[in-house]
Amino acid sequence: MTLTDLTLVTRDEAAAPAAVACCGPLTRETISAADAEVFARRLKALADPARLRLVSIVAASDGQEACVCDLIEPVGLSQPTVSHHLKILMDAGFLTRSKRGTWAYYKLVPGSLDAAAAPLVTV
Amino acid sequence: MTLTDLTLVTRDEAAAPAAVACCGPLTRETISAADAEVFARRLKALADPARLRLVSIVAASDGQEACVCDLIEPVGLSQPTVSHHLKILMDAGFLTRSKRGTWAYYKLVPGSLDAAAAPLVTV
């Protein structure tokens, strides 16, 4: 190791002498780079207080479906902001939307929350 | 409803006449605003491909603890970038850090991933 190499690492985390075995064994498979991208995208869609509450309300509604009219007041945000969050949740595969009469209804995609939680319970 | 009111909502999501009952019953409790803030912060810390892979490697390591020297190469990022991600994971309560000799070791906080997944499996 040269001094130039050392400038790239902190003192705490500088490479040990080659004679020191640092690398512990892995006891199980880790997440692949491709899976990590997919999981991170899903979690990012949920990693917002308003979106968590919206999903929570939809999931707790009868048939896991809620009218948009039931979603705006509880989260205390404007309708355009709620619609923005709902779109992110739809794009990420957590909700589907259908229109019946005047109202739009948002339904939880079965299994989508379990799929999002999967990397956390299996890592 | 006046025309002024109508400009605040989209056509799809315009308020229905008062005579139409739109509000379905909730079948269980939903996440509170305060809990949503806490859960969202945790999920945000995990909602990154590199951080998911780092947590995954630590969790799969013997004793759920890994030397930083085992974390840099697998994720294919520079040491400063890996350290940045590790700090975010520590700040969010997923990892603790200790130094033994030359190396820093990162250990998974027991139960922290389950706590992060909780809102997804209970909503």
Describe the structure.
- Chains A, B: This is Transcriptional regulator, ArsR family protein.
- Chains A, B: InterPro entries: ArsR-like_HTH, ArsR_HTH, HTH_ArsR_DNA-bd_dom, HTH_MetalResp_TranReg, WH-like_DNA-bd_sf, WH_DNA-bd_sf.
- Chains A, B: Keywords: DNA-binding, Transcription, Transcription regulation.
- Chains A, B: GO terms for molecular function: DNA binding; DNA-binding transcription factor activity.
- The structure is a homodimer.
- In chain A, a hairpin with a 2-residue loop joins strand 2 and strand 3 (about 105-110).
- With about 120 residues, chain A is of the alpha+beta class.
- Chain A has one domain: Winged helix-like DNA-binding domain superfamily/Winged helix DNA-binding domain (Arc Repressor Mutant, subunit A, Orthogonal Bundle), CATH 1.10.10.10.
- The first copy, chain A, starts with a helix and ends with a helix.
- Chain A has a 3-stranded antiparallel β-sheet, with helices on one face.
- In chain A, about 45% of the residues lie in helices and about 10% in strands.
- The relative contact order of chain A is 0.14.
- The first copy, chain A, has helices at about 5, 35-45, 50-60, 70-75, 80-90, 110-120, and strands at about 65, 95-100, 105-110.
- Chain A is built from 6 helices and 3 strands.
- At the A-B interface, helix 2, helix 3, strand 1 and helix 6 of A face helix 2, helix 3, strand 1 and helix 6 of B.
